[in-house]
Specification:
Rossmann fold; binds adenosine-5'-triphosphate; globular; 12 helices; alpha/beta; three-stranded antiparallel beta sheet
């Protein structure tokens, strides 16, 4: 993705909801997009899938998949790509499965929509996929309706459906948010196994720094529709370059040592896209803000890899962080 910008008319003027988002995802790589609610994570994912269907939206920039430009691709071409090449799983599988057909029937149909196979062959593949996803007694589960399964089983079934046509890219939008922590750990394990067992790349969208720490090779931090920082996950956790990344990490309870009575919180809230300041969007909440922040910082080498902040560029790294371990809490 290069310089993706999505603008919508708000109050009579065009407002950028996403601005100049740029990243590359390699084969068999797991990348996390992390940010608060409203930071633009879902819009970024929907843009890859060609699913931004908002009247008046203006989309600029480039999304290339295996060398092929997706921006401006007609919906017919997108339909062929979705499911077969790029698949998506969502937070709540209840909204992805229709309640009136069995899980197995729905996965069979997905397979048959993309491949010329008969019912029996499709069902055999469905059962095999459910088994691969760790679903116990997959034949019986295939005969169940969505409401008859636990949240964890439904999420496994949805990932099975997403993988049914061997996509090379899986986009998972908050796939574990609705699950309890034990099941969440199992699903993250499953996502990590996809590159090994299926050779897939995964784009994982989450608001939870613990989830990216456990799962992602690289992490991109979004703030107010823009990239704040991007780099290898380990580097981001050890030496974040953007005060926002550092503040997100500091708001996670440390795993070792004494726990502070109150965790540090980031004061204020992100600006609405229409009220974004002209300079750095984080400056009004930033403990390190100074006059240079009146100019919007470009993404530059620094921090974990690339950072949109003048501090690292000016050779003024952030003070060392307190706790270094992650307890898997929400950010
Ligand atoms: N259809 C729409 N019409 C107007 N504004 C929209 C629309 N969809 C998204 N937005 C705005 O775009 C911004 C980014 O939204 P997006 O859903 O991508 O955020 P997000 O990071 O995925 O948040 P969440 O974690 O809550 O899902 C938000 O300010 C949101 O209000």
């Amino acid at each position: 993705m290069r310089d993706l910008t999505i603008a919508l008319p708000v109050g009579g003027r065009m407002v950028n909801l996403i601005e100049s988002v740029t990243f590359a995802l390699g084969a068999r790589e797991i990348m996390g997009i992390v940010g608060e609610s409203g930071s633009g994570k879902s819009l970024t994912a929907l843009a890859i899938m060609g699913l931004i269907d908002v009247p008046g939206a203006r989309i600029a920039g480039s999304v290339r998949y295996r060398g092929r430009e997706l921006a401006g691709l007609p919906q017919r071409a997108f339909r062929a790509l979705r499911g077969r090449e790029i698949a998506m799983v969502f937070q709540d599988p209840m909204t992805a499965f229709t309640p009136v057909y069995t899980i197995g029937w729905q996965i069979d149909e997905q397979i048959r929509a993309h491949r010329r196979v008969g019912r029996a062959e499709a069902r055999a593949r469905t059962v095999r996929l459910l088994g691969d996803m760790g679903v116990p007694d997959p034949e019986r589960v295939a005969g169940r309706y969505p409401h008859q399964l636990s949240g964890g089983l439904r999420q496994r079934a949805m990932i099975a459906m997403a993988l049914s046509c061997d996509p090379s890219l899986l986009i998972a939008d908050e796939p574990t948010t609705a699950l309890d922590v034990t099941v969440q750990a199992q699903i993250l394990d499953l996502l990590r196994g996809l590159r090994r067992d299926f050779g897939s790349s995964v784009l994982l969208i989450t608001h939870d720094m613990g989830v990216v720490a456990e799962t992602c090779d690289r992490t991109m931090v979004l703030y107010s529709g823009m990239v704040a920082e991007h780099g290898p996950t380990a580097a981001l956790f050890v030496q974040p370059g953007h005060p926002y990344s550092a503040a997100l990490l500091d708001s996670i309870p440390p795993l070792h040592g004494p726990r502070p009575a109150r965790l540090p919180a980031i004061p204020g809230s992100p600006p609405a896209p229409a009220d974004r300041p002209a300079g750095c969007a984080f400056a009004p909440r930033c403990a390190h803000a100074h006059p240079a922040c009146a100019v919007r910082p470009a993404l530059m080498a620094g921090g974990a890899g690339e950072v949109a902040c003048v501090l690292p560029a000016e050779g003024r790294p952030l003070p060392p962080r307190g706790g270094s371990a992650v307890a898997g809490g929400g950010a």
